[in-house]
Amino acid sequence: MKYIFILLISSFLANAQVKTDQLNLMPWPQSINLTQGTFVIGKGFKVNITGNPNSRIFNGATQFLRKLDGRTGLFFNQGFITGLNEFPNAELQINCVQNGKIGLHEDESYRLEIISGKIMINATSDLGALHALETLLQMLQNNSTSYYFPAAVIEDFPRFSWRGLMIDAARHFQPVDVIKRNLDAMAAMKMNVFHWHLVDDQGWRIEMKKHPKLTELASDGNFYTQEEIKNIVKYADQRGIQVVPEIDVPGHGSAILAAYPEIGSKVVMLNVNSGEKEQQFTQVQSYALERNSGIFTPTLDPSNPKTYQLLSEIFDEVCPLFSGKYFHIGGDENEGKDWDSNPKIQEFKKKNKLANNHELQTYFTMQLIPMLKKHNKELMGWEEIMTKNMSKDAIIHSWKGTNEGVATGSSLVNAVKNGYKTVLSNGYYVDLMQGVESHYLNDPMPKNTTLSVEEKARILGGEATMWSELASPMTIDSRIWPRTAAIAERLWSNENVTDLSSLRKRMKTVSFRLEELGITHIRNKAVLFRNISNNQKSEALEDFSNICEPLKIYSRNIDGTEYKTYSPLTLFADVCTPDAIDALDFDAAVNQYLKNKSIENQVLVTDFLKKWINVNSNLMELSTNAPLVQPLLPLSKSLADLSEQLLLMIDKKQSVNPTVLKDLLEQCNSKNHADVELAVYKSLKKLIQA
Amino acid sequence: MKYIFILLISSFLANAQVKTDQLNLMPWPQSINLTQGTFVIGKGFKVNITGNPNSRIFNGATQFLRKLDGRTGLFFNQGFITGLNEFPNAELQINCVQNGKIGLHEDESYRLEIISGKIMINATSDLGALHALETLLQMLQNNSTSYYFPAAVIEDFPRFSWRGLMIDAARHFQPVDVIKRNLDAMAAMKMNVFHWHLVDDQGWRIEMKKHPKLTELASDGNFYTQEEIKNIVKYADQRGIQVVPEIDVPGHGSAILAAYPEIGSKVVMLNVNSGEKEQQFTQVQSYALERNSGIFTPTLDPSNPKTYQLLSEIFDEVCPLFSGKYFHIGGDENEGKDWDSNPKIQEFKKKNKLANNHELQTYFTMQLIPMLKKHNKELMGWEEIMTKNMSKDAIIHSWKGTNEGVATGSSLVNAVKNGYKTVLSNGYYVDLMQGVESHYLNDPMPKNTTLSVEEKARILGGEATMWSELASPMTIDSRIWPRTAAIAERLWSNENVTDLSSLRKRMKTVSFRLEELGITHIRNKAVLFRNISNNQKSEALEDFSNICEPLKIYSRNIDGTEYKTYSPLTLFADVCTPDAIDALDFDAAVNQYLKNKSIENQVLVTDFLKKWINVNSNLMELSTNAPLVQPLLPLSKSLADLSEQLLLMIDKKQSVNPTVLKDLLEQCNSKNHADVELAVYKSLKKLIQA
Q1: Which residues of B are catalytic?
Q2: Most buried by CB count within 10 Å: which residue of A356, B79, B101, B307?
């Protein structure tokens, strides 16, 4: 009987008209109209491609088939798509007018029309068609027995041309499979620039045939071969993604200088007494690969011709590996300490009438432009490269903000006003473990500044940056995703798409679907829990992680020496993520309760409090056979103690000592345990102060 | 108060003496003596290496440090070990007398001594030292606050020299990261031969510079570059593992012949009428890459000189990629149908006095020996290569058994009696989804045959084989592990180590620890459940998977066409594994209850029955929004219906209709749903018949 009832429900569902706000599209398209009807997917589903596309659409459409296959379990007959017009009567028709070229300001628009029995994708090029296929996958619906697409017309194009993700492969090396799966996730979110931070104090990550010392002495064996790099560039190209490599100079130079100390700026003065007079010599300083995190002094010597010779040879070898137009040369955080203490460099500054280290660095950077031009590449650099003398062809990468004591994105406005193209990363530092809201509402287009049309046009877009001091191959996906999906939406969708509750709702499905691309942000949590709990059942750990967030904005690993670049990151803080789910739900419950203290609303709150008392007791039990659980106990105990007091107050209507309450609350605000903070602190405070 | 109690327990635990049967070592060492005391691990823990080892021990010891780091969260100061005697006072001292060479009959023994404050590893070579480090990791214990090793002396060496795992990368292509993580897992289980099945009807997986057609026309773009292959060979070497490549000829030839049809055996006869007399011509048959599973006819033409020319050129290019001594040429399952129907080949047979197709195949295989000898490689092949004329240098790979209508491993005895070296795979086909017991109790040394010492010595060991018709990169780990760990123990440990309950107990920990090597057998289950359940909470799915096993021994995908080589494998059957855990527990409960029908024992049984009634109802609910759950419902309903009857019988002491009971039981034995079978059927039958 129950079974019959279920079948009745399912046929009802089959006919239900999907509403726009039920769709979990991300980034949200520019225009969508749902019409009547559905396209039901069957085993005979086929794809046909016409027009004049780049062959990347064959791979893209094949991958689309495989994903749809895996979701629906239908096992389509069509295997690999390798040419034009293979199945003229196929239900899904893709037409591309022209061959898409990866680069700035390419037409990425598409039109997707779904009707009963037919799906049509029309795009200027394969780049737009790939985006259309991602949208189509996101349109997938189901009832109890089958999968279908709702009938719709979608017209879509990106707001910004540069929608990037940077991955730092220098601090914690990130192997090829990490890069590839993140390229897949980027493509799913319609992102089109992969900025690959390949060199920093902690490592040189590029195989060099003419300068093997760079990997022999400065990589610990962790580097990409040139074949791997070319392979990744091709993999990215097939997904419509440009790769922008970065070699960070002249600062962040420990790795280069570990291999080539002779081009370093640091000198050691030696006083040698030869008979009567004392003579001063300078001696080359030796450098070591950096194992800690922070800003370090090793800097290339801009006065040494050998510096430019080496860099020129490096670019000659590295540039041809990349097909894109841009090469990022870093340029950030050079404090110039070793320049100040080197007499030869001081003399060079004077001779060349360079007023300060900034001008000296500009001099240095300007030497790189022809080296890159030779390979048809334009220079891109962090905002420090910008001065009046810098070439206007350069792209200024705006990264500083309140953390660095300047107004958010101030360099962005300066750059466009001075005629530079620019890309925003301030506000998109996903490694800082901030909630999705801050990134999502951070618009590359400044709100309170009047810019001309031309100036606005120079704001190319933005880039999420994933620095890897505290991210291993095991954890990096959970640091990037799903928050970067929200940044992707900011960069693609209309500026008015800013509804946070819609974002959060859609992100749940988007996050789940990233799994099919191999993104490990969900699955690896369970792996780490098993390690922390010593393979004991660990529901309490998971519950606790749902209200804990890792310490934010450089407050974890403060001196930069606690975690080394070779440290595995397997602690509770490495499992926790921003936007702790129960913390969000608890905050909603508290708000609702404070608005209306009905019994129903009260139970919403007290259920959480009771849960946390249990969590603490379960964690204590778990800890008897799991040393890695011990550091959590002070925090879980504070929360349990406070919860008990609050239950007395709310459930039992007893009066509780306000000082005790306040003390317990502040203990819940501690940042001293397990490198995490309780994300429910503010909601608890509201509850107590109400 | 509770907290204090816990602390008391933990200090008690700290002093508890570990007993041998508490250790979760696998493979079990030849000799172990636990002594008094413990070695407590601290942040300053360091490793020092002395003697004359191969540099692979530096990488091995560094990896050891990282794993211990990740488990303990101590973050050791020591980073990378790159040379001898870096820390003479280190607590862990490793001494290797000589440089280990990868190959047959190498001394892999080691001695591991743990005392308070000191650990000493002594080995003939780095190969033994690597094994010792794996044992040491398995010795890790903890109390509530710290990690330690119990004091012990372990002396250990392998029983067999050949302890292999074969992975089929032809049917479903397995990318580099799949291979690498499985090499890590093999090393953890002290296995030393990776047999890489690189070519079959479904694909050619080796980049060929002189014969690019092989990958262009026969790989769908899924192949290993030569650099990747060399990289994997090096990766394996660093872990003490020899790589044995396989190019399967002359049968299983669809891929080679898709690129080079001119060396195929199949001919098409054309009758051409020219005036009065009719002339017969033969025409080259075209071949296509195979998409299905099974045994196919495409076979190389052994009478065609071009066949040998091509193979010779192929070996010239492929052999240098591998450093090991053995090259596997397949040779299996050639039915010779296309030979029989080709007049030219029949003529060739007559001319060369080859009595039958077996002799013709031997003729073919003998031509390959000098091609391999040229590169200092010996030939290995599946048992079909064995005849009186075959070179005694060849290794015979014994694979047939009851499934093929012959006595288990009969070719193994024939081989050693005829003077051949041999490796056993019959009984180790992990892709057949049989329980661990059958593999574990399958000993390479035949029980009922008298062999001389020399004959016994020719039994080199065994190899687990993982054919990939039904295994994708997503699921293959769960098909290989943890059962292959039991095979590893069979091949390493004393023949008397056969206690199944000890094996099952130790396998739980071994299985968990394989996760730290990246093995995905546990984590990917959850990923697939999320896909099947449409991201709904899926405890019922997991519960049901704990009593279901995939159809065994070629009974899934019977006609070989249901699943193509490009089909993603994302169904419930792909999540389920042999040795379904609740089925084992239920069987134990039934046995206990049948022995003694106490209330306690009754509850053990009825709790399962109640659980399955709930599972069915939850699965039905889940299915209303998850089409992929639908196929499970008939089976879960049968089990729930039977459980309800059994509850009436056992709990309520009501009499139930035996015919109804029998019918329901037989429905629980159905193999017609979702490609799985209920692993509790036999236990239910026992319960009913009792």
Answers
A1: 333
A2: B307
The residue in chain B having the minimum alpha-carbon distance to the alpha carbon of residue A62 is: B566
A contacts of B177 (beta carbons < 8 Å):
175-177
Contact yes or no for A220 and B80 at CB 8 A: yes
For B387-414, the DSSP string reads STTS-TTSEEEE---GGGTS-TTHHHHH
- Section A659-683 average pLDDT: 97
What are the DSSP calls for B642-684, one per residue?
HHHHHHHHHTS-----HHHHHHHHHHTT---STTEEETTHHHH
Confirm whether the ipTM is greater than 0.85: yes
* Three-class SS state of A558: coil
Is B9 close to A624, i.e. CB distance below 8 A? yes
A138 CB neighbours in chain B (<8 A) are none
pLDDT attached to residue B437: 97
Does the annotation mark A333 as catalytic? yes
Average pLDDT, integer, range B208-220: 97
Q: Angle, to 10 degrees, between the axis of helix B357-373 and the axis of helix B343-351?
A: 80
Tokens read off for A32: 């969508």
Closest among A674, A540, A543, A619 to B6, alpha carbons compared: A619
* Distance to chain B for A290, nearest Cα, Å: 12
d(CA B68, CA B141) in angstroms, rounded, equals: 11
- Pairing, β B277-284 against β B267-274: antiparallel
B620 vs A contacts (CB less than 8 Å):
2-3, 6
Provide the b/e sequence for A116-153 (b: ≥16 CB within 10 Å): eeebbbbbbbbbbbbbbbbbbbbbbbbbbebbbbbbbe
- Yes or no, beta carbons of B73 and A512 under 8 Å apart: no
Cβ within 8 Å of residue B496, ≥6 positions away = none
Helices (H), A165-223: 176-188, 213-218
The predicted structure's pLDDT at residue B454: 96
The predicted-structure confidence for B577-629, as pLDDT tens digits, reads as follows: 999 999 999 999 999 999 999 999 999 999 999 999 999 999 999 999 999 99
The region, left, alpha or beta by phi > 0 then psi within -120 to 50, assigned to residue B653 is: left
Tokens of residue A205, six digits = 């990550």
Chain A residue nearest residue B568, CA to CA: A70
Residues of chain A with C-beta less than 8 angstroms from the C-beta of B142: 534, 625-627
Q: Which pLDDT tens digit goes with each residue over A371-400?
A: 999 999 999 999 999 987 788 999 999 999
CA dist B672 and A617 (Å) reads 46
Within A538-657, where are the H helices? 539-545, 572-575, 581-595, 599-623, 633-650
Structure tokens, A427:
């506000």
Cβ contact B145–A627 (<8 Å): yes
Half-sphere exposure of A367 (CA within 13 A, CB side): 20
Residues from chain B that touch A71, judged by Cβ atoms under 8 A, are 531, 570
Q: Do B624 and A13 touch (CB under 8 A)?
A: yes
The residues pairing with A650 across neighbouring beta strands, listed in sequence order, are none
What SS3 state is found at A97?
A: strand
Residue A312 contacts by C-beta under 8 Å, 6 or more apart in sequence? A371
Å between A457 CA and nearest CA of chain B: 40
CATH numbers and ranges of domains, chain A: 2-156 (3.30.379.10), 162-524 (3.20.20.80), 530-689 (no CATH)
pLDDT surpasses 90 at B402: no
Contact call for A72 and B627, based on CB within 8 A: yes
Which residues does A629 contact at the CB level (< 8 Å), separation at least 6?
A: A532, A533, A541, A572, A619, A622, A623
CA of B391 to nearest chain A CA: how many angstroms apart?
40
**Which residue, among A533, A567, A673, would best test binding to B if mutated, counting the most B CBs under 10 Å from its CB?**
A567
**Range A301-328 average pLDDT:** 98
Q: How far apart are CA B521 and CA B533, in angstroms?
A: 19
